[in-house]
Amino acid sequence: MKKKIVYLMIGVLVSMGIRAQLPTAQTIASKLKVGWNLGNTLEAQCSVTAWGGVALTQQMIDQVKASGFNTVRLPCAWDCHATNGVIDAGWMGTVKQAVDLCVNNGLYVIINIHWDDGWLENNVTTAAQASVNAKQKNYWTQIANYFKNYDEHLLFASANEPNASDATGMSVLLSYHQTFVNAVRATGGNNASRTLIVQGPNTNMGLTNTLMNTLPSDPIGGRMMVEVHYYDPPQFCILTQDASWGKMFYYWGTGYHSTTDATRNATYGEESYLDSNFNLMKTKFVDKGIPVIIGEFGAPSRTLSPPSDQTLADASRRYWYRYVVSSARSKGIIPYVWDINMAMYNRGTAAVLDQGIIDAMNQGAGNAYVTVTNRASAQLADGMYRATNGSACGQWSNSGSDAQKWQVVPAGRYVSLVNKATGLYLDGLSNTTNGSACGQWGYSGSDAQLWLIQPAGGYFTLSNKATGMYIDGIYNYTNGANLGQWSYSGSTAQQWTIGTVGHVQSAAVQRGIVGNTAAALSGDLTASGLRAYPNPFTSAFYLTLDDAAQVKEIVIVDLSGRTVQRITRPSKSMLIGAGLGVGEYIVNVYRGSGVKTFKVIKINK
Predict the structure, then answer these.
(1) Domains along the chain?
(2) Does the pLDDT of residue 5 top 60, yes or no?
(3) Is 161 noted as a catalytic residue in this protein?
């Protein structure tokens, strides 16, 4: 009898270990940046080519990852591929092939039951509730069993855009989600702790905020996300021809309206509307520890004829993509772009078709280095490797150096520009004198470090939030000349091209930037329980810990994510970094169940 009890206890412990093996939804969400949808392919009825799609290839996924995406949503149909309720094994293999291409490339993946001829989405009713729940249980049991051995890189989503708009519909929808959760958890293994995603009614943020006051019960806590979609305003994001209820909007966003084609300017649904919707999701879920994804967002490109302004419309569309991503990430929400009409990539060759939209999303995520090039002189804004607060920013012909690369850190309508070589921010220094130099400074959080990018024909102007002064090349053609500031003149010296030249690789930096906290940025750091100084440093920097005994380890990685130093027994005060080369590094201090992350920069003497 004693042996049986022991064996039983061992079995229970093993079972508990299996159920707790995958990370929480919050942990996974912290690693996600911006996602891409493989739309019009696996959800096509009966054939991946039904809507013009082609089978997913390694080349295509390599391109998606190279574009800066680290997570992919795979919309899937299943009902068309089932006979007498049994999903075809060949179709399971087709979906598996797509999952494997993503997971094996280090990407996170979501698979769902998408439109699927509307068997669930169009039947969120009490009359259909029993039959839909039966089918939901049947399909998710098969799907979950087939993929049960995948690790945390694979997530399951219950549905797509369930058609519910009132309390009764929400109650029925909740039963569909509960069936989904129960079916997946019952398959055991990694599915006992896999992160699951449930959709709000109509995936509409307003309805979700009002109606979705309860989530499905789950035997394991902290493994659920909520999904909404965003296509607002529809005249800008959906219409491709005028409708009886509204005309297409070509121009969206403050500073992106046309003065000659005013009837096509957005009249609602702009920045403040977007922010208010995203804030609803932040307050309702994110702030309570429930991650949120925007499973789809997008706006079509349009080919316009005079008097409409094609250049302004294209710039406005890129601004919308940048703003959606920026606002979502600042609120802890993960956005997944819908590749409308498959216009971002050629699915057959994997060639990029719309680099501007990809760049805009990377800029919105704080995941892009850019160059800033003057129209008049072709000189680039250059940090000149100056690491002293208050030093002037210079100009130089194209050298390809890190001093000419600036990280875009979004802050609502504004951005900060952080020099890759030094980590200093482009700073107006509160100068209001025409001809004064643009300066550089460690992170201060002041309006002098915020710049408004506005279209000027095929170029852009950059004006300082604190002073309203514009970055101006002042017609200097000499390498090393100061970058100037001037009140608005309309001259070509105030017009710039902004070109993306690379991605910021470290997810740790991304999380800090999203929160806009000093902890992730350069400059001496004094945070709860620790202090790091000087920063930047030339030989080594000091790290002091108030509670060294509670720190599990300290891991330093370079911007490619490679671990360059690990400290497993930290002391209260340490001198760190003597063996590091010149460059930028991310320091992760693991304490309890959390991690404090900040950036340090080593420079030449």
Answers:
(1) 231-337 (no CATH), 368-503 (2.80.10.50), 507-602 (2.60.40.3080)
(2) no
(3) yes
